[in-house]
């Protein structure tokens, strides 16, 4: 798996085809997508981009690219997960994916139930009850077994050649330890997680590396929920932090390149996303320099004084954030 991938989250139907094709032209050979992206339209557009890249000679064969997609949490369970994979393969126009990830440890949530809770006094209780939004059949006594069945489906997909590797996303140490008890194939190839200087997830990364699990960091530049108030509370935007700017000046690299390189030097793969061809080249041009130890520490120290969950910049206002409290 190439350690610098191209992310397709939130590109949308209009942009995902053109941006993916442009990324392939720029030399990216690891494309990260998911069943749910773009309201279930992105996989189809990524598949079209792959066909166009082959037709134009940008890539010579299917084997030239590493494609990751993710099973959606609404499809937890053996049969449902297999159906999810078949739909993904059909949309992508592929016989197999190089990596198939379990997108979330569960559960799926009821939108109507969520809206009712948000607009009522029960909203306060939701902070202490990650099951308040859960769909029927995905409650506290069911999701662990469903997740195990999802992994069993992924193991069979691997054995059948429909997935060259199987992986997880947004899993905590507890999630991994629980899954390990029933898994027949271990470890997962990858755990894709939010990780950046404000939310470094040191313990989880150390655990994964001990288990032989590659950590792939998303939101390496900071997440989509970073409001002005949130950035101010944390001490400012990562791209504008003193430690990042000082390294940027010394190395004559952009702040974004410094942050992406910081993740790589922590042995984390990355999946930055952009629609700008110049930014695509910038994000991948991070292999001709190194940060010194003092710079690595100074950037890591941005998390000092930040609470365990305060530095989180993705899913802060979404019930998905509560999956961390699910065993």
Strand content: 5-15%
Oligomer: single chain
How many beta-strand segments? 8
| Series of secondary-structure elements, N-terminal to C-terminal | EHEHHEHEHHHEHEHEHHHEHH
Q: What's the rounded overall pLDDT mean?
A: 92
Radius of gyration: 20 Å
- What is the strand arrangement across the widest sheet? 1-2-3-4-5-6-7-8
Number of helices: 14
Helix content class: 40-55%
> What's the shape?
globular
Structural class: alpha/beta
* Cα end-to-end separation: 29 Å
Main sheet characteristics: 8 strands, parallel
pLDDT < 50 runs, ≥5 residues:
116-125
Report on the architecture of this protein.
The protein has 327 residues and is of the alpha/beta class. Helices cover 43% and strands 10% of the residues. The protein is built from 14 helices and eight strands. It has helices spanning 12-25, 37-40, 42-56, 78-92, 111-118, 122-126, 143-159, 173-180, 202-211, 228-234, 242-251, 255-265, 277-284, 293-300; strands at 6-7, 30-32, 66-71, 99-102, 166-169, 190-194, 214-218, 268-270. It has an eight-stranded parallel sheet with strand order 1-2-3-4-5-6-7-8. Helix 1 (12-25) links the parallel strand 1 and strand 2. The longest helix has 17 residues, at 143-159. 44% of the residues are buried. The model is unreliable at 116-125 (pLDDT under 50).
């Amino acid at each position: 798996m190439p350690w610098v991938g191209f992310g397709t989250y939130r590109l949308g139907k209009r942009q995902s085809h053109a941006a993916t094709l442009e990324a392939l032209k720029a030399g990216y050979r690891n494309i990260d997508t998911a069943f749910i992206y773009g309201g279930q339209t992105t996989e189809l557009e990524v598949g079209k981009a792959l066909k166009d890249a082959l037709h134009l000679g940008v890539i010579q064969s299917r084997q030239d690219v590493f494609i990751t997609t993710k099973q959606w949490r609404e499809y937890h369970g053996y049969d449902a997960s297999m159906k999810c994979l078949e739909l993904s393969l059909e949309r992508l126009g592929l016989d197999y994916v190089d990596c198939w990830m379990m997108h979330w440890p569960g559960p799926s949530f009821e939108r109507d139930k969520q809206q009712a809770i948000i607009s009522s006094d029960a909203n306060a209780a939701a902070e202490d009850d990650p099951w308040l939004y859960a769909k029927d059949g995905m409650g506290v006594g069911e999701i662990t077994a469903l997740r195990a069945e999802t992994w069993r489906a992924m193991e069979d997909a691997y054995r059948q050649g429909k997935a060259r590797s199987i992986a997880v996303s947004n899993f905590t140490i507890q999630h991994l330890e629980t899954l390990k008890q029933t898994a027949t194939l271990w470890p997962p190839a990858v755990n894709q997680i939010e990780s950046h200087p404000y939310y470094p997830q040191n313990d989880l990364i150390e655990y994964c590396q001990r288990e032989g699990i590659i950590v792939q960091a998303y939101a390496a530049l900071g997440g989509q929920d970073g409001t002005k108030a949130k950035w101010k509370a944390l001490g400012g935007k990562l791209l504008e932090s003193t430690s990042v700017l000082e390294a940027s000046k010394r190395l004559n690299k952009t702040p974004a390149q410094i942050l992406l390189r910081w993740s790589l030097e922590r042995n984390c793969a990355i999946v930055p996303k952009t629609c700008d061809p110049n930014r695509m080249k910038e994000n991948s041009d991070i292999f001709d320099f190194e940060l010194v130890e003092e710079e690595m520490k100074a950037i890591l120290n941005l998390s000092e004084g930040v609470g365990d969950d305060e530095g989180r910049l993705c899913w802060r206002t979404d019930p998905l954030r509560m999956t961390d409290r699910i065993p």
